[in-house]
Amino acid sequence: MSDKKGNKSNLEIELRQKGEIFRLFNQIACKYDITNRLLSLGQDTYWRNELIRQIKIEEGQEFFLLDIATGTGEVMKTFRQFYPMHGYLLGIDLSEGMIREGMDKFDKTDQKYLFAVMDAMCQGIKSEMINAVTMAFGIRNVSDVSTALKEIYRVLKPGGQVLILEFGLPQRGLWRRIYLFYLRYLLPYLGGFWTGCPSAYRYLSETICKFPSHDRFSKLMQEVGFIDTKWKEFNRGAVLLYTAYKSYKYK
Ligand SMILES: C[S@@+](CC[C@H](N)C(=O)[O-])C[C@H]1O[C@@H](n2cnc3c(N)ncnc32)[C@H](O)[C@@H]1O
């Protein structure tokens, strides 16, 4: 991921060159959920609930949900809480460690979920299979955002919906400065202290700062072909929920 001038941070380049981003997640997998809850003061649950609330499901429709960068399966678990019986769920991620944590959360009698180790940028999924694609705090991690968006577009059925939850930066004012201070000086130490893996939280902080602004990211979605792109801010832009659709008539 690059900043506006195309520069990449040292840590990010180092990790990408070694293909080690998913190993970072393997290292923190067992403490991932609890660390999220602590660092977000429990709000991560609320953000995922909001994501699920925005999913459009037509009654009686056979529904396929793909959760990309599913990690410990929190989005799929939340979906199941809202819709205990409905829909087939597929969660994909590069980190086996994260996926293992996720599998433990599901009722073994539930036959309608599946986890798979798969890259967001090269999904072994048939085109036009999926009704809704979700991706929570994952798009920031992929090395080529447009390629991942094109893959999402490809696998969605015409009229299908994409919902992407991601960290952002408040645009201006005191809150932006406070948040930048938290990202640069507090988050790496708090996250590192708790998980024993400070580089994972330095990486988190760097990638949040480098991720495109909300209007730039919406443009990237439109360039891929998505229509009706919208975003909703939480905590004055520290977290954003992007939603869009694949047109029924598409290129
Ligand atoms: C911050 S976690 C988000 C997990 C989960 N979606 C959540 O809501 O908590 C990011 C996840 O992205 C995964 N990831 C990173 N790059 C990926 C890629 N290219 N393809 C698939 N997953 C990827 C990591 O392994 C990690 O589990």
Give a structural overview.
By secondary structure, the protein is of the alpha/beta class. It has one domain (10-245): Vaccinia Virus protein VP39 (Rossmann fold, 3-Layer(aba) Sandwich), CATH 3.40.50. Helix content is 45%, strand content 20%. α2 (21-39) crosses α7, α3 (43-53) crosses α4 and α7 runs antiparallel to α8 (198-210). Bound molecules: S-adenosylmethionine. Residues 21-22, 25, 69-71, 74-75, 93-95, 98, 119-121, 136-138, 141-142 line the site of S-adenosylmethionine.
Keywords for this entry:
251 residues, alpha/beta, Rossmann fold, seven-stranded mixed β-sheet, globular, binds S-adenosylmethionine
Number of domains: 1
What is the straight-line distance between the termini?
Answer: 27 Å
The CATH level-2 architecture is identified as 3-Layer(aba) Sandwich
The gross shape turns out to be globular
CATH superfamily: Vaccinia Virus protein VP39
Radius of gyration, in angstroms, nearest whole number: 17 Å
* SS elements, strand count: 7
Main β-sheet, spatial strand arrangement = 3-2-1-4-5-7-6
The distinct ligands, each listed once, are: S-adenosylmethionine
